[in-house]
Amino acid sequence: MSGSQYQIKNDGDAGQLRLSGRWTINCDSQVADSILNDFRQEPFGTIDGGSIEAWDSSLVSLLLRLDQEAQQRDLSLKFQAFPQGVLELLKLARTVPEREGSGKNKEEQSFLSFLGDKAITDYREAISFFCFLGESVKSFYRLLRGRARFRATDLRDILSDTGPEALPIVTLISVLVGIILAFVGAVQLKQFGAEIYVADLVGIAMVREMGCMMTGIIMAGRTGAAFAARIGTMQVNEEIDAYRTLGISPMDFLVLPRIIALVIMMPLLCLYANVLGILGGAVISIGAMGLSFTEYWQQTLNAVDMTDISLGLIKAFIFGIVIAITGCMNGMHSGRSASAVGDAATSAVVAGVVFIIVIDGLFAIITSLLGI
Amino acid sequence: MTQPTDNSIIKVEDLTMAYDNFVVQRDLTFDIKPQDIFIIMGGSGCGKSTLLKHFIGLKEPAAGRVLFRSDEAIGQDGSEYVDFWQTQDSKRQALMQRCGVLYQSGALWSSMTLAENIALPLGEFTDLSPSDIKHLASLKLALVGLSGFEDYYPSEISGGMRKRAGLARALALEPELLFLDEPSAGLDPISARMLDDLILQLRDNLGCTFVVVTHELASIFAIGNNSVFLDADSKTMLTTGNPNDLVSNCESETVRNFLTRGEGG
């Protein structure tokens, strides 16, 4: 059967629009726009719906738009011979006036005001980061005085989640990093016939930089995001409010065990990554370059000293604090919707990774200045 | 400042609530008496839950005061009321421990079983032995009709059960004051009715005062003996009093319309 059809008759001063055929959402939508255009150019006074065969709310929407257009121009618009249902729906749509101020402000923002807004939000975020840091320190102080409480089972669960369960991915990544370093070194050092120094390169690079940085990045992606999502969901669920109103500090109860767990686990994971990275390098040196294991091992022991190892561990310790704090903070400040929890997890990872790289860079500058 | 001598347990004076620059409600003044079941009612989005947040320490007033009666407060200025938001944190904490809260979604801690949910506040704030705590938690669950569900996690039970478990947790510390945020929302009529009966029984037997946010008319008439009506358009309260009287005697047409679903008044 035919689609939407219309016809405009001009008899005397006020024209008439006759609608016929089918007016449903499956019909051509451009017809409605062309009717509106016609109305804007040459308004008509009545609309006749006598020969409409089928209709749904797309027809009501068209009539409502026409009616609003007419009202803006102080014209009267009469609806003739429409099915009763159409008129009832139209009435329903018009009974509750738009609440004043309920329309969102859709004004285009100028570049300068966008920049200003951004600066203000960034400033507030920086402030809230330091507030959160301060809160965690206070919470830690309460713990030292024996007044902060959390459940031992929670700490145990988080410890197992951040430690043993992260081992497979840490293993994979650090072995591969060790292999990559060995290959890069081998190609260069072969030119001087100094393949043995691959052991130095892999050892020092793993222990000083790559071990702690790779574990940090893995844990930021794995655990930082999990913290943010977990705490953010609790925020959505009003669980955090429930802690607060009962007088249980969410800082002590949720954030503190997570910081403690990561601070314990990060150096251990880093140590593990160091060993596996060196083993990865050894596999390549022995397999592809014909060094013996004892040679490689002896060379590594000569190259890497306690300073290098402790430097890596100190960094891992700091990264642990950073990951836990960015994760928990984004969770605690999360909005109360599904997308806000997603945003919280995203910014936890992004902030965690950025902080890790920046801190690592600072360490590199400071240690080279101090000659460590 | 002198206080009129009456026995109200909570007094709200000229309270204005706002989110940043957006005022939700202004000039709210009403009293809540002991053993009232006080209904906060009004259309959707008028700020009922926001008002509740001012009582339980989650949202600070933009202006005005929320006063709690406290036995320890006598002596400061001859008043037996504490200004909830102006007093020290420790006092506010103490006041909040006299209150139990049931959140809209139940807000049970999802990583703990129902028994652990109830046991946590008991373990934190009382000196009871673990076995006493366990028995008390079972009792509270039995009171709300959930005995046998001690070891279930919140995600394993239905919405109505979660509400009741939330109520059991709110009852954990033997509160004098219970705040319920839309207790019967999302429940079928029978469960909602059972919850109403439970509230009445708890009031009669434990002597608690209830502050209930709801717009379920059946509940309002069944349990409410005092109320405040918040209006979203005028952004203030239209009336306060017993909803059963307001339905016929209130001067405001909005309130009568609300209480009769727009059919009478």
TrEMBL record, chain A:
Q: Which GO terms describe its molecular function?
A: phospholipid transporter activity
Per the record, the major location class is membrane
TM regions (residue ranges): 166-187, 259-289, 309-332, 344-370
Query: Could you name the domain of life of the organism this protein comes from?
Result: Bacteria
Location relative to the cell: Cell inner membrane
Q: Which Pfam families would you find in this protein's record? A: MlaE, STAS_2
* Domain (MlaB-like STAS) ranges: 17-94
Q: How does it sit in the membrane?
A: Multi-pass membrane protein
- A GO CC term assigned to this protein in UniProt: ATP-binding cassette (ABC) transporter complex
Alphabetical keyword list: Cell inner membrane, Cell membrane, Membrane, Transmembrane, Transmembrane helix
Indicate the family of this protein: Belongs to the MlaE permease family.
Q: Report what the protein is called.
A: MlaB-like STAS domain-containing protein
Species whose genome carries this gene: Kangiella spongicola
